[in-house]
Amino acid sequence: MTTLRFAPSPTGHLHVGNLRTAITNWLYARQSGGQFLLRLDDTDTERSRAEYADAIRRDLAWLGMAADDEVRQSDRTALYEAAFDRLLSAGRIYPAYETPEELDVRRKVLLSRGKPPIYDRAALSLTDEERAALEAEGRRPHWRFRLDDTPIEWSDLIRGPSHLDPAAVSDPVVRRADGTFLYMLPSVVDDIDMGVTHVVRGEDHVTNSGVQVQMFEALGTAPPTFAHQSLLVDQEGGKLSKRLGSLSARQLREQGIEPLALLAYLARLGTSQPVESVADSQALIDSFAFDAFGRAPARFGEDELAQLNAKIVHGLPYEAVSDRLPEAMTAEAWAIIRPNLERLADAADWWSMINSAPVVELSEDDAAYAEAAAESLAAIDGDELWGPLVADLKSRTGRKGRALFQPLRLALTGQQHGPEMAGILALIGKDEALRRLRAAAGQ
To answer: Comparing C-alpha atoms, which of 428, 443, 421, 304 is closest to residue 368?
Structure first.
């Protein structure tokens, strides 16, 4: 079975970069009839928080992407220990005793000589006596995975044929001196244990993937299929890192962004497919394709998201939103107000306008016009109000265009712009409209 995983660290709220990765994994899992798993990488005990884990689950559920199953790395230490022991016995893991300060000095020396700052494997030349002496000094080793010199190659679903020269990177540290594991090895162990078939993540993990190919092979398992997305940037091509706090799922939800709008936007961002309004997530699932992703950075635009959000709102049926609308707001009112909304929450303002008389001050000419409008409206007999009203006023006053319509809108709603007045007047009703026109006329 096709199995994909989303593996955030519960050290903060999910931002748009995380969400895009989650969405891509979820779309392919659903399209292929597979599983979408959540793995909480919570081994950073100082920064991981239960409330952030809860927020991650809540954000995924809000997007309609609840995971099929969930694991936490903090519960899986025994698996990592067993894999560590296997690799140690096979000679693929070795202890190294350099302090962070010593390693930093070595990196700086190599850089000053114009050489890549790659670890020189000095620890491999230590004798048993030298290691014992270092430990007698109180040093505790960190542990590195020894890369072999076999060229690392894989076929990436987005980047195409990919490779990594093992000689161009340092043997990665897999375990700290305090015994805690770093990201690289536990991630591989989890993917093996969870049966992950596809690893989809950002292109900043390309080197990690190359290194992990050898880890999979050293543990006797074929690596999964990889796909590396280009990273998100702002509209000017700059990093989004300074804006991530305001671009979290929580903040966007509070700003009135619909889950379907965010889903549709991030699903198509950075692809050759159009960012467009969709009726539901199934349209995104059906059209998903890895070969649609480009290699260029994907430009995230808040204005573009807001515009898409408005289009999504315009297409929402009453049944889908009735529980989020003001009390007593009808399907008829929703149909009239909906085309003018940017956010669903704005419906409350328009509903209030319909149910509350505005306080307006018109010019002397417009006040007289409002009085004439009240006379015309009072004479209308029938359910259709707006058409007969403006036709009579045009005939009586000679007004047309903005001069004909704008004072009426202002007198009836207190607003310069808004939904079509034919529908608004029908919602306000003839009696209330007469009161508002007469009040605007100073009567």
So the answer is: 443
DSSP string, 150-207: SPEEEEETTTEEEEE-GGGSPPPEEE-TTS-B-SHHHHHHHHHHTT--EEEEEGGGHH
Write the pLDDT tens digit of every residue in 337-384: 999 999 999 999 999 999 999 999 999 999 999 999 999 999 999 889
Q: Distance between CA 350 and CA 416 in Å, rounded?
A: 13
Q: What is the CA radius of gyration of the chain?
A: 31
- Rounded CA gap, 20 and 306, in Å? 17
pTM, two decimals, is 0.91
Amino acid letter for position 34: G
Contacts of 346 (CB under 8 A, 6+ apart): 256
Q: Token pair of 286, please?
A: 């059906």
Nearest one of 8, 102, 104 to 60, comparing CA atoms: 8
Under a CB-based contact definition with an 8 Å cutoff, are residues 92 and 60 in contact?
A: no
In SS3 terms, 71-111 reads as EEHHHCHHHHHHHHHHHHHCCCEEEECCCHHHHHHHHHHHH
Q: How far apart are CA 259 and CA 253, in angstroms?
A: 8
Could you give the CA distance from residue 87 to residue 184 in angstroms, rounded to a whole number? 13
202-260 confidence digits (pLDDT tens): 999 999 999 999 999 999 999 999 999 999 998 888 887 645 556 999 999 999 999 99
Structure-token pair, residue 179: 């015994």
Query: Are the C-beta atoms of residues 192 and 134 closer than 8 Å to each other?
Result: no
Q: For position 46, what pLDDT does the model report?
A: 84
Q: Measured between alpha carbons, how far is residue 177 from residues 144, 181, 262 in Å?
A: 11, 9, 42
Question: Which among 412, 401, 417 has a CA at the least distance from the CA of 374?
Answer: 412
Place of tokens 């679903």: 157
Length of the chain: 443
Return the half-sphere exposure (C-beta side, CA atoms, 13 A cut-off) of residue 195.
8
> Could you tell me the CA-to-CA distances from 410 to 47, 289, 366, 404 in Å, in that order?
54, 50, 10, 11
Residue 187: pLDDT band by 50, 70, 90 thresholds? very high
Predicted confidence band of residue 44 (pLDDT cuts 50, 70, 90): confident
Task: Determine the pLDDT at residue 244.
Answer: 54
